[in-house]
Amino acid sequence: MLPLSDTGLTILWIVLLVVFLVLEAATTQLVSIWFAVGALAALLAHLFGLNEIWQMALFVLVSGICVAATRPFVKKLTASKLQKTNADRCIGADAVVTEEINNLKAQGQVKTLGNVWTARAADDAVIPEGTVVTVEKMDGVKLIVRKKDETK
Description:
It is a single chain. The protein is of the alpha+beta class. The protein is 43% helix and 24% strand. The longest helix is centred in the middle third of the chain and has 27 residues, at 52-78. It is rod-shaped and about 85 Å long. 24% of the residues are buried.
């Protein structure tokens, strides 16, 4: 049977291994898997009879190597990517004013590509209903438009 200190170290490395694995399972960001690998290395070092200094050194070294080797790759995989929508298709498209555009009154709508959008004039001009305009850009959920014959 192992002396108490050996048993205590075995329990310590097993508990750390389990804690890091449970923490990893509870999150989706891969934040502790490297330390679980380090704890496993330290546990194996302990079972092969290496002293506590070597066990701690292996834990730190293996964890550090795992972080350095995989973290950039993991960050790239887990980075949130902007989801493109079809809304950007409107930029540069022609639209028909369905409600007079008046920036001072905060009113105006256009229809483009089959959808009706809130619209504002790029140059603060009042644009009457039925006018054909060109979409210059999007500002939140509003299209910024200019009369077709005035586009640059």
